[in-house]
Design brief:
The chain is α/β, with parallel strands linked by helices and 805 residues long. It is 48% helix and 16% strand. The chain contains 29 helices and 26 strands. The chain is globular and about 105 Å long. The protein binds adenosine-5'-triphosphate. Residues 3-37 form a coiled coil.
Length: 805
C-alpha cells in the first residue's frame, strides 16, 4: 500500500485516539464518583423519607413523595448507567478504535463518506458525524456483505443504493496500526488467515472484524420466527449465534434486555467457554442453561431423570447386555413425532376414561378417595379439555378440604393436640391470635369501640366465653396447620397420578394400541414396556422418557409458560428431539427461536435433522415463518484436516475448507496399549515443544478417559486434566476428554486414542468419530492398536500420513 495512505491512516488514528483520550479524561471525574454518588442518593433517599401515617392525607402525601423521589432516582441512575457505558465503550475503543473502513458514495449525493467500523460508535464533538460506526449499524453491513463496486444496504426507511469505492481492513494493537489490507473480492481472507492461524483459547473469541457474508445473514436476520442454521463443523455457528445476540441487544435496545434471551448449551463447561464473548463486545451476557437443568427443576423431587451423558454411555458401552436392542429402539421411538402424536391421542382417550388420581389421606384416613375423584372428573362436561377439568377438580378439592377442615376441628385428636401445647406455644398462639384479630378482625374494632362508648370492659381472659373462644381459635389454628400440606399438594396437582398415567401406557401392545390408535409399533415393544416400568418403579426416568413425561403432565395439568423471554437460542440443535422442540415452543410462547446445529455431528439417539425437507423443526412454526441458512465453509481446521474429516461423512464433499495449510492428519498403529500410550505421551511432548498449548486426547467413553488419563500420567505427562461431565470450567492445557463432552469446543491439537474397528465400527459411531476429529484446529493424530475403523480405512491414502512403526 502506498506510503501516503499509511501516513494518512496513522494521522487519523492519532486524531481519533486523542479525541477518545480527551473524552475519557473529561468523563473520568464524573464516572469515578458515580458509584459513590449512587449509594449516596439511595442513602439520603431513605433518610429523608419517613412515612407519615397519622392521617390519610399525610399518608397519601408521603406516598406520592416517595414515588416522586424514586422516579427521580431511577432517572438519575439511568443517566449514570449511560455515562458509565459511554466511558467503558471509549476505553474499549482506545487500543483498537476500528478494524475496517469502507468509502461509500450514495447515489445522487455528494462525495463519498468514509465509514470506519469498530466495536462501538464514537461521535465527533459536533455530536453528528461518526468517527467510528458500531459494527451493528445498518451502514456497517456493507463491510460484511459487499465488495467494492455497486453496493446497497438496508435501513429501517428502505434500501440505500450507491458505490463502494474502497474496503480496507486494519490490525490495530495498542494504538498502532500493525497491518492494513485493501480487500477486493471477499472480506478479509488475509486477516482471517492470521486470526485462524492463532492458537486455541480457553475462551471463545468474538469474530466482529472478520464476520463472513453468510454469517452476517444469520446475525442480522430479523424477520423469521424460527431461524435454522445447519452448518458444518467449525463453520462458525456458535460464533454467529453470539454475535447475533449482541446485534439483537443493540438493535432492540429499547425493548430487549439481556435477561430476555436464553441460550441452551450442551453442557456447563461449554457455557463457561463462551461466556466472555458478549462482555468483550460491551454487552451483558444472555441467560444460559441446559435442557437437563430444566428437566431436573420440574422433575427433581418426584422422579430422578437420567442425564443425556449416562444415556450416551449406555449406548456406547452396553452392546452385550440383555435388552440393549429394545432400549435403543425405545430411545428412537420415544424421541419421534409418532410418539408425540400417540401421547396426544392418549390425552383424548384419557378424556373418556382411565384417568388416575392419588386419594387424599389424612392421619391414616381416606379424606377423599381416588375413586371419588374419578367419578367427579368424569362427571364434568366431556368436551372440556383435560387441563380444564383438572383445574375444576382442583377447585372442588380445595373447597372439599375447606369443609373437611371445618369438620375436623371437633375431632378428638385436636383436643389431644391442644393439651400437648406447652405454655410457650400456647402463649405464642395466643399472641398471634390477638395480633391477627387486632389487625384483621372487624369485630375486634367494633368491640373496642363499643367498649369505649358503653364504658364497659369486655370479657377478659378469665371469662368463660373468652376461654371457649380462645379454644375455638386454637383448634382452628391446629387443624389449619395440619391441612396446610394437603392444600399445598392440591395446588401442586399432586392429586393427579401422572406417574401411574404414564406407566399405564406401557402395559403391553394391545393396551397401547387401544389408548393411542397406533397401528405400527417397534418390534421390541414388550421389552420397551418392561424397561420403562422397571425404571419408574425405582422412581427414575430414562432420559428419553423425561420430556414425553413432562409433555403428558402438561397436557393434563396445563402448560407452563414464560412470556418474558423474547429469543431462545439452541446450540448443538441436532441433539434435541422433536419433542423437546415442541416443548420449548410451548414454554416460551413469545420467543423467536434460533437453532444452530450440524446433523453430521448428531451423536445422541434423539437427533433431529435441521434441514431435511420434512424436518419437524420446519413444521414447528411453518414454512412461512422459518428461514433456513446453511453454512458450508469450515473455518476451524486446516485445509488438510477438513479434507480428511469431510470424507468420513456421506455428502461431506460439499463442505468447503478455508484455505489455511497445515500437516496432514497422522495415523499411528501400535502394538498394544502400552506402546500406544507411550507414543501418545511422546507426541504430546513434541506438540508442546512446537508451541501448541491446547491439546486434547479424545476418548469415546468416560471409563476410557479415566484409564487413558491414568496411563498417560504414568508415562510422565504432566498437568494432565481429566474432563468429566461434572467439570464446570474450560481451561487451556493438556486434557483427556470423552468425545461427547468435547462438543462445541476446539483445541490446537487433537489425539483420538482408539480409532479401531471395535471402537468406531458401527454406523452410529461414524458421527462420533467425525465430531472428535473436527475439534482439531492445527494438528490431528489418530491411534489404534488393532484394525483401523472402517471409516478411516475407506479414506483415500493421500488424505493422511502414516507414522513409521
Ligand atoms: N468469521 C470468522 N472469523 C474468524 N474466526 C471465525 C469466523 N467464523 C468462525 N471462526 C472461528 O472458527 C472456529 C469455529 O467456530 P464455531 O465454534 O463458532 O463453529 P461451530 O460451527 O459452532 O462449530 P462446531 O459445530 O464444530 O462446534 C472458532 O475458532 C471461530 O473463532
Amino acid at each position: 500500500m502506498e506510503a501516503n495512505h499509511w501516513r494518512q491512516e496513522k494521522e487519523r488514528l492519532e486524531r481519533v485516539r486523542k479525541k477518545l483520550q480527551a473524552n475519557i479524561a473529561e468523563l473520568e471525574p464524573e464516572v469515578a464518583g458515580l458509584s459513590d454518588q449512587a449509594t449516596d442518593i439511595r442513602k439520603r433517599f431513605w433518610e429523608e423519607v419517613t412515612i407519615n401515617t397519622s392521617t390519610y392525607e399525610d399518608f397519601e402525601e408521603s406516598f406520592y413523595s416517595i414515588n416522586q423521589q424514586s422516579a427521580i432516582l431511577a432517572e438519575r441512575e439511568r443517566g449514570h448507567k449511560l455515562l458509565m457505558q459511554q466511558w467503558k465503550n471509549m476505553n474499549r475503543l482506545l487500543p483498537s478504535p476500528y478494524f475496517g473502513r469502507i468509502d461509500f458514495k450514495e447515489d445522487g449525493l455528494g462525495p463519498s463518506e468514509q465509514v470506519y467500523i469498530g466495536v462501538s460508535s464514537f461521535l465527533n464533538e459536533d455530536g453528528l458525524s461518526f468517527l467510528v460506526y458500531d459494527w451493528r449499524t445498518p451502514i456497517a453491513s456493507l463491510y460484511y456483505d459487499c465488495s467494492p463496486g455497486p453496493a446497497s444496504y438496508v435501513t429501517p426507511s428502505g434500501a440505500i443504493e450507491g458505490t463502494m469505492e474502497l474496503k480496507r481492513q486494519y490490525q490495530i494493537h495498542n494504538g498502532q496500526i500493525r497491518n492494513m489490507f485493501d480487500a477486493s473480492e471477499t472480506i478479509g481472507d488475509e486477516l482471517l488467515q492470521q486470526v485462524l492461524g492463532k492458537g486455541a483459547d480457553s475462551q471463545m473469541k468474538s469474530i466482529v472484524a472478520t464476520i463472513q457474508k453468510e454469517q452476517n445473514a444469520i446475525i442480522r436476520n430479523d424477520t423469521s420466527r424460527m431461524l435454522i442454521v445447519q452448518g458444518a463443523a467449525g463453520s462458525g455457528k456458535t460464533s454467529a449465534a453470539l454475535q447475533r445476540v449482541a446485534y439483537l441487544l443493540y438493535k432492540h435496545r429499547q425493548s430487549i434486555k439481556a435477561d430476555q434471551i436464553v441460550l441452551f448449551s450442551p453442557n456447563t463447561m461449554f457455557a463457561s467457554y463462551i461466556s466472555t464473548v458478549l462482555p468483550e463486545l460491551g454487552e451483558e451476557n444472555m441467560q444460559q442453561t441446559t435442557f437437563q437443568e430444566y428437566l431436573d427443576y420440574w422433575l427433581g423431587d418426584s422422579l430422578q431423570p437420567e442425564d443425556p451423558f449416562n444415556q450416551m454411555e449406555y449406548v456406547l458401552t452396553a452392546q452385550g447386555e440383555p435388552g440393549y436392542k429394545a432400549r435403543l429402539q425405545g430411545m428412537t421411538y420415544k424421541s419421534s413425532e409418532a410418539f408425540l402424536l400417540d401421547l396426544q391421542s392418549y390425552g383424548v382417550w384419557l378424556g373418556q376414561k382411565g384417568m388416575r388420581f392419588n386419594g387424599i389421606r389424612f392421619r391414616n384416613r381416606n379424606l377423599i378417595t381416588a375413586e371419588q375423584m374419578r367419578t367427579k372428573f368424569y362427571a364434568y362436561e366431556r368436551s372440556l379439555p383435560l387441563f380444564n377439568r383438572v383445574a375444576l377438580m382442583q377447585e372442588w378439592l380445595l373447597n372439599e378440604l375447606a369443609s373437611l377442615e371445618r369438620r375436623e376441628r371437633e375431632a378428638p385428636w385436636v383436643e389431644e393436640e391442644l393439651s400437648y401445647l406447652d405454655s410457650d406455644q400456647y402463649a405464642e398462639a395466643f399472641g398471634m391470635l390477638h395480633k391477627e384479630k387486632e389487625l384483621f378482625d372487624l369485630t375486634e374494632h367494633f368491640t373496642s369501640v363499643r367498649e369505649k362508648l358503653s364504658n364497659k370492659r369486655r370479657e377478659d381472659e378469665g371469662d368463660f366465653e373468652f376461654a371457649s373462644k380462645e379454644e375455638e381459635l386454637l383448634r382452628r389454628r391446629v387443624v389449619k396447620e395440619s391441612f396446610k400440606p394437603l392444600r399445598k399438594a392440591v395446588k401442586k396437582f399432586l392429586f393427579v397420578d401422572i406417574k401411574g398415567i404414564y406407566e399405564q401406557l406401557f402395559k403391553g401392545e394391545a393396551a397401547y394400541r387401544e389408548r393411542t390408535n397406533r397401528a405400527e409399533l417397534p418390534d421390541q415393544w414388550s421389552d420397551i414396556c418392561k424397561q420403562t416400568k422397571e425404571r419408574l418403579d425405582q422412581q427414575q426416568l430414562f432420559y428419553e422418557d423425561a420430556t414425553p413425561y413432562l409433555y403428558l403432565k402438561e397436557l393434563i395439568e396445563g402448560v407452563r409458560t414464560n412470556t418474558e423471554i423474547r429469543h431462545i437460542f439452541v446450540d448443538e440443535g441436532q441433539d434435541y428431539s422433536s419433542f423437546q422442540y415442541v416443548y420449548l415452543k410451548k414454554l416460551f410462547p413469545r420467543a423467536r427461536m434460533t437453532v444452530l446445529g450440524d446433523f453430521g455431528q448428531a451423536i445422541f439417539m434423539q437427533a433431529t435433522s435441521l434441514d431435511a425437507p420434512d424436518s419437524p423443526l420446519v413444521r414447528l412454526f411453518g414454512k412461512d415463518e422459518t428461514s433456513l441458512i446453511r453454512l458450508l465453509r469450515s473455518y476451524r481446521s486446516t485445509r488438510e484436516i477438513v479434507e480428511f474429516t469431510r470424507s468420513m461423512l456421506p455428502g461431506g464433499e460439499e463442505i468447503a475448507p478455508f484455505d489455511r495449510r497445515g500437516r496432514k492428519p497422522l495415523l499411528a498403529r501400535l502394538n498394544g496399549r502400552e506402546k500406544r500410550d507411550a507414543q501418545i505421551a511422546a507426541d504430546i511432548a513434541s506438540l508442546i515443544a512446537e508451541g501448541y498449548d491446547s491439546i486434547a486426547v479424545i476418548t469415546k467413553t468416560a471409563a476410557e478417559s479415566r484409564d487413558v488419563h491414568e496411563s498417560l500420567r504414568i508415562h510422565g505427562v504432566e498437568a494432565l486434566q481429566l474432563i468429566t461431565k461434572e467439570t464446570m470450567d474450560f481451561n487451556k492445557g493438556v486434557m483427556v476428554i470423552p468425545v461427547y463432552l468435547a462438543k462445541g469446543v476446539e483445541f490446537d491439537a487433537v489425539l483420538v486414542c482408539d480409532v479401531s474397528l471395535d471402537a468406531y465400527g458401527r454406523d452410529n459411531e461414524r458421527k462420533l468419530l467425525y465430531t472428535a476429529c473436527t475439534r482439531a484446529m492445527h494438528r490431528l493424530h489418530l491411534y489404534t492398536t488393532g484394525d483401523w475403523s472402517p471409516f478411516v480405512r475407506a479414506l483415500s491414502a493421500d488424505l493422511y500420513e502414516q507414522a513409521a512403526n
